[in-house]
Amino acid sequence: MGDMGILVTVLWRVIGRLLRRLGRGILLVPVAAMAPVLFGLRPWTVAAVLLAVVVALWRPVMAAMVLPVTMVVAGISGLVVAATAPGPSVNWVVSAIRAFKGSRVTLKGPLPGWTIDRRAGFPKSVKPVATPGPNSTQVAIKPSAAAQAAHVQVPPRFYGSPAAFVRGGQVPAAAPFPGKGAIQVQMKGGPGGAEVWMHRGAVIHPGGGAWPGGLLVPLALLLLTLGLWLLPRSAAALRAHTTGMFAYLRHRMLENRWGILLIPVALLGLTVFGVHPWTVAAILACVVTAVRWPLLAADLVPVVLIAFAIRGFEIAASWPSLPGLQQPGELYGVIVVTTRQLAMLAGAEASAFLVVAAWLVPRTIGAHARTALAPGRDLELEGRVQRLTETRDLAVDAADTELRRIERNLHDGAQARLIALGMNLRAVERMLPGRPEAALALVAEARETSLRALNDLRDLVRGICPPVLADRGLGHAVRALALDTPFPVDLDINLPGRLSAPVESACYFAVAEALANAVRHSGARRVHIRMQHADGMLRIQVGDDGAGGADPAHGTGLRGVEQRLAAFDGIMAVSSPPGGPTMIAMEVPCALSSPKTCSF
Amino acid sequence: MRVVVAEDLFLLRDGLTRLLAAHGFEIAASVDSAPGLLDALLEHRPDVAVVDVRLPPSFADDGLQAALAARQQVPGLPVLLLSQYVEQLYARELLADQSGAVGYLLKDRVFNDDQFVDAVRTVAAGGTVMDPDVVTKLLGRRFRDEPVTRLSAREREVLALMAEGRSNVAIAQRLFVTEKAVSKHTTSIFTKLGLAASEDDNRRVLAVLAYLNT
């Protein structure tokens, strides 16, 4: 027991150190590794694990953020798989012990867990014959006449269906067909059964025995609990990461007129119609359409969704209810249909698809038809007008606020000082004949006041239009800004010309705000500013190595920048997870005029 | 001493020429635009030019550009720039050629005519004069640095005054200490910042500004 204790302590320390070095994100890998366990070794499960490894190593912060969601998804998937898997339900404690011990399973009598693919054309004539043995099971399978005609192959492979963990059977490479098309399958070891995979798509699971579903359920519940517990923690980080992203997505979505939606919808088709050559081809076609002809793609989205709905209704209406015969799962969207009840649920899902389609029809096909039928009404123009109305209101508000600020500033600053100056001079007038030395002191005071008034005005003008910006343009103004910043600023500015004055001003104050945030809040030690103009688009990035946590939703600074840029169709995205680093990216479409030629 | 004045606002130009004339300067020319300034500088070759940064035709930094252009043709031509604003970026460009005889002051500094005339004379003599505002910003940038934080409060005061272009005598008067005390401070500053000490006032200012500007 003492040795065990030491071992556990050492393991705990090693894991703890690994976690500290690699961050919580590395946990994404074992969680993603659940996918092949649950769904078998398939291209997509392997891809998921690889993706998890890549994300965990290269983007640990992002990995830590998606970890809870992944845990919840894995937990729910585990529960779904466990609930829909064939095989008798076994006390999980017993099964856990068996699995741990290496499990010698004996099968008793005809197995209840046979499942037959509904589409395969292997009807009830298939009857499993199991010979129980201490360590092996012989199964004889007799295909129907139709299936005999087909080439039947029994490769020793894992081919997961819903119960991917039902595996471990060893199948002889060249399975014999002893008489009348019967197949003999020899299974050895493993807590689950083996499975026989045939060309025509028949998937036969000799379930039974102790299935690791017993282990799966507690594991899934544990993951679910952990995931739910971690979820609120990462929600804040996720929000910080995605603020601005929503505006960006909405902007892009409106620009694309919903056409881009065709790609995810087409991918969803894989879960509705299954992976076939034609579904893969359809996805490729959809991607091309979404990129090249967004309007057509937008029209196709509701059409495809309606096709999904029809398929769902078909499943719901036609699912057989055969007592004693378990269907293998038929995946429909997020539901694996195995029983008639689940088929009804799939029907409900189909209705949901139909509702989304109905919502989209007037926005896509309807709108396009209106445009086509009513000349002069351009959809793009309509969207643009709406956006312009929004941004104009914001711009007017911003201009008004700015004017008020200037008025208040003048009133409290320069104006007040000039009044004081006037009063001083009046006093001097009166004192001069009688008390010239006192008058002299007042004159000195008056000069001091005029200096202060000048200072006030200077600060005010700097806030309206900084001198270097007016003189030399954005690039130099940002360089001057960097000089006034009390820590090193790496500049990478490629701006061979001038922008229009309002865009220059908006961008200047955007960079100034981002820099001021870095100085005031983040505790950064280095800032970098990248600025370049290409393809009619000015792109600015301001990043720092500070503590992060900048959020446009809180505080008016970044929000104001966003609104000011919006007036020029510009957008801003903020990525500032707690712990940093912060990256603020801005894009403003604008033209670059040729550099001002100097007369000297 | 012959001086060229460039200022586009009539009232200010008039005031400047009067002030300079009252202090014994000879006004070689007073102009109101950048091209006029360049012509006047190349024609008259004055002992010093007092130039407003913002001038016609484009009302940007034309005055600065004209002054820099003139100094390219006449190296070391003494130029004192006046502006409503002082910008580190412009100060940097003025100091870039390391040859001195430049000044950069806020227009407000004209209010104190003695100091202003001193500044004009310093620049004319090949010295460097920087506005206290520029120096404050330069020092602000440097405050996180190791060597500058090692300076005592008094040494920082002396450093700031040196950067403005003042001689040991002027610094001593300003801080009400002896000239010897000031020179002790300057030696200490140069040691702490790792700069090569120099007896020559002008070279000393340039060294300090170059250090602060990096």
Short description:
Chain A is α+β, with helices and mostly antiparallel strands and 600 residues long.
CATH level 1 name of the largest domain in chain B = Alpha Beta
**The CATH superfamily title of the largest domain in chain B:** Response regulator
Q: How many H/I helical runs of chain B?
A: 11
Outline the low-pLDDT stretches of chain A. 86-213, 596-600
- Strand line-up in the sheet with most strands of chain B: 2-1-3-4-5-6
Total strands of chain A: the figure is: 12
**Based on helices, strands and strand pairing, what is the structural class of chain B?**
alpha/beta
* Biggest pleated-sheet summary of chain B: 6 strands, parallel
3D structure, described in words:
- The complex is a heterodimer of chains A (600) and B (214).
- Chain A is an alpha+beta fold and 600 residues long.
- Chain A has helices at 2-22, 28-32, 34-39, 43-58, 60-84, 92-101, 145-149, 213-242, 245-256, 262-273, 277-292, 294-318, 340-373, 379-431, 436-464, 467-472, 474-483, 501-522, 557-566; strands spanning 129-131, 136-141, 183-188, 196-197, 203-204, 330-332, 335-337, 489-494, 527-534, 537-544, 571-575, 582-589.
- Chain A folds into five domains: 14-85 and 215-230, no CATH class; 104-209, no CATH class; 244-373, no CATH class; 385-464; 471-589, Histidine kinase-like ATPase, C-terminal domain (Heat Shock Protein 90, 2-Layer Sandwich), CATH 3.30.565.10.
- Chain A is built from 19 helices and twelve strands.
- Chain A is elongated and about 115 Å long.
- Mean pLDDT of chain A is 72; it is low at 86-213 and 596-600.
- Chain B is an alpha/beta fold and 214 residues long.
- Chain B has two domains: 2-130, Response regulator (Rossmann fold); 134-213, Winged helix-like DNA-binding domain superfamily/Winged helix DNA-binding domain (Arc Repressor Mutant, subunit A).
- Chain B is built from eleven helices and six strands.
